[in-house]
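Run folding on both entries below.
>entry_1
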Amino acid sequence: GRSIGLDGVIEQQKNYARSGFKLAHRNIRFELPVIPDSVAEMHYPEVLPISDDLLQRVLEYDVDFFPAKREQFLKRWIKQPGGTSLCWLDNNQVRGYSVMRRCRKGYKVGPLYADDHFIAEQLFRTLIAS
């Protein structure tokens, strides 16, 4: 058999349990109202759009953060229409990446993986400035 994951809502947890699902972990989300002037326009040459040339390196970087193979999913996730996907490339090596996509209200960011806090923050700032 195969495992099925469900990204559900708290109000429906009893219904999910009746269908046989068990809570594996919680996903906490935050909302940030972005005021354009509050986003510093800092440009780092290491922050790049995830082009076709960089995609394979990003997929290889992702392996350290996720316990299963998900190349086909990520290819589509990174290239989804209306989305923005960035990576941090340092000495030809990916050291972080993130994806931002439109949702009902504003945008959602995720995943956001980075080798350190500084890289994560710059990827996030560049995404929300876009």
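>entry_2
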Amino acid sequence: MLGNITTLYPNSKQYPPLLSSLQSPPMLSVLGNIDALYKPTIAIIGSRKMSTYGSMVTKRLCKTLAGLNCATVAGLAVGIDLEAHITSATLQIPTIAVLGYGLGYLPKMHQYKHIKSILASGGCVVSTYTFASKPEKYKFVERNQVIAGLSCALVVVEAAIHSGTNHTVNFMLSLGRSVYAVPGSIFSATSRGTNSMIYDGATPLKDISELRINFENHTL
């Protein structure tokens, strides 16, 4: 493991205020800089089957946030989420990786090689599970609730029509927080989900600069 683990309990003064909004706030195990949990946070998530378009949008989104006092949040999954973490870390934007398994299982995952740069960005890795807990399908739904709980706003870059990302969107809406979706081609399977989200009421991100402008104007 790459450092000390901090345990944050729901009744602790150090517990992230945003996450306290959940009906049953979970205990957190945090590897890295807990200060990232108190910054204004924007979740950038999406398809594991990231397209060239999705990669380009994710990188541009992170670049437009560079220099702002914010942190990004994602689920460390291969695809859009991992791209958001890597780009944020490269730009020295603190990035928060939320796991669907225990911190002790992390070294077994392909994404482990990126953890050092995530921590070096001033970010952290968060889990609500016991140290050796293995990945299971239901845990990723619970992880998505934590991503929503930690985020002021959510941007879905790409998603299939029946994507698990829909769980995160629904959790955000239940908390009354902003959901942005990136429009894409009607011929792209990875944009059908985001296009559908826009149809259902998500805010279309028509220009990359909108996110920075809304952040600076406190209108996320």
